[in-house]
Amino acid sequence: MAMLELRNLTAGYGQVQILWDVDLALERGKLTSLVGGNGAGKTTLLRAVMGSIRPWGGSVAWEGTAITGLPPYRKAGLGLVLVPEGRQLFPRMTVLENLEMGAENPRARRKMTHNLERVYTMFPRLKERAGQRAGTLSGGEQQMLAVARGLMAEPEILMIDELSLGLAPVLVLALFESLLRLKADGLTMLLVEQNVRMALTVSDYAYVLAEGRVAFEGKASEVAENPEVKKAYLGI
Amino acid sequence: MILQTLGVSMRFGGLQALNRVTIDLPEGQILGLIGPNGAGKTTLFNVINGIYPPSEGRVVFLGEDIAGRRPYRLAHMGLARTHQIVQPLTDLSVMENVMVGACYGRERLGLSAARRVADETLQFVGLGARHEQMAGSLNVAQKKRLELARALAARPRLLLLDEVLAGLNQTEIASMVQTVAEIRRRGVTIIMIEHVMHAVMNVSDRIVVLDYGEQIAEGTPSEVSKDPRVIEAYLGDPDLAARLTGSVR
Fold first, then answer.
1. For the whole model, what pTM was predicted?
2. Same structural domain for residues B202 and B242?
3. Of the four, A75, A160, B49, B149, which is 20 to 30 A from B64 by CA?
4. In a mutagenesis test of the A interface, which of B144, B234, B247, B249 is the best target, namely the one with the most A β-carbons within 10 Å?
């Protein structure tokens, strides 16, 4: 059974429908990516899954149990964790305080010391800067902190919205390498990413979203070879 | 050429939003302006439209250097635009909104002539039945059409369309694309910023691609869709992906 499964999910804002009957499944221990051009509906899908917007229709199931209408904090309590686009850190709080904020749910609080050590091992820069305000970090460090804060929540599934947006190539590489380490540890992940080539390189499975619908899906290696990917982005 | 941008650059503090963009636009064409988020597309519209004077370079419209000329003066010359986030005057009727375009546009019409033009324009965009409705009460697709009608009522020679297809469903997209093609058939030159790629590739004569403020490609839709720099801008750098693979294996 899929760890998380969306069936016929529809969602939008006001009168504007963004998602049209999206089916998507995340398998345990796999890294799945969701790619697609501007305005394809990727962020809306994450919001509808997380519950920060209410889906118009369809269902979200967690190991077979419907969780569609649960509020975000309840989903986070189950272990469904989102690293949002634009990081959304607490800029005036320190790096350590931001990390502690990630561990607010009871499951995570119990494992806080262990997880803190784990994220410091993965991102030594954050340990060096533990006492520094998050707002003073570089863009790459802030993205590391956003991922690390997500990990502090003791995720069963980590969903990341735009890991590499706006970062220099060397940082993009470093962040993707950390994803590969998390994958090796068996974490289930959903990656939304504008750098399609990078996303498909690290993923097991991929969905291509175009104009709010799943245009096609498949093993990441097969999707990478599919000329339809280019078409989904460039129209021809 | 109805419009030329000659080495247009725009800086906001340390951010180079546009870097020496040069476009020649012959009269009667549809030019598609595409590029990833943050490429500088709307900034280029804002420069052409006189919202910002360019940091460098010239904008020539109908043979005159218009860099720095105010938007209302450009509207008198025949330059009109729509906005990505529609900007109706919500407490005026649909009719009054479009009359505003006619009164302050190229012909600077009086109220009765403006009413006539607004009426025709509303028929043309398919809002003929909604004259008296308050603009704020329209749905999204109708507001997009109202935005278009207000720009058209200014009787532009050049029309700048900023994402007129965003937020529309497939049927509405097809219908709006037909409307755009019909506007061009009536002799209006068009630049359209658009993310609905199949539509913009279909309706444009030529495409200009911006990425981080740089003009990375220009040509027919089929030429730009094969251009390696364009593919890289949209799909990511293949070399970086190869380095990542190298690091795992």
1. 0.83
2. yes
3. B149
4. B234
Domain boundary among B134, B155, B176: B155
pLDDT digits (tens), chain A, 236 positions:
899 999 999 999 988 889 999 999 999 999 999 998 878 899 999 999 999 999 999 999 999 999 999 999 999 999 999 999 989 999 999 999 999 999 998 999 999 999 999 999 999 999 999 999 999 999 899 999 999 999 999 999 999 999 988 788 889 999 999 999 999 999 999 999 988 999 999 999 999 998 899 999 999 999 998 988 888 888 87
Half-sphere exposure of B209 (CA within 13 A, CB side): 25
| Burial per residue of B132-166, b for 16 or more beta-carbon CB atoms within 10 angstroms, e otherwise | eebbeebebbbbbbbbbbbbbbbbbbbbbbbbbbb
Contact with chain A for residue B227, Cβ under 8 A = no
Give the ipTM.
Answer: 0.74
Q: How far is CA B63 from CA A31, A179, B4, in A?
A: 56, 55, 9
Residue B196 has pLDDT above 70, yes or no: yes
B137: nearest CA partner in chain A: A15
Contact call for B36 and A15, based on CB within 8 A: no
What is the phi/psi pair of residue A75, to 5°?
A: -65, -40
Domain containing B15 equals 1-73+159-164+190-249
One-letter amino acid at A159 equals: M
Distance of alpha carbon B9 from its chain centroid, rounded? Answer: 18
Residue at B216 is within a domain: yes
Residues of A in contact with B202 (CB under 8 A): 235
Burial classification of residue B129, based on how many CB atoms lie within 10 Å of its CB (0-12 exposed, 13-18 middle, 19 or more buried) = exposed
Looking at the structure, tell me whether residues B36 and B92 fall in a common domain: no
Number of domains into which chain B is organized: 2
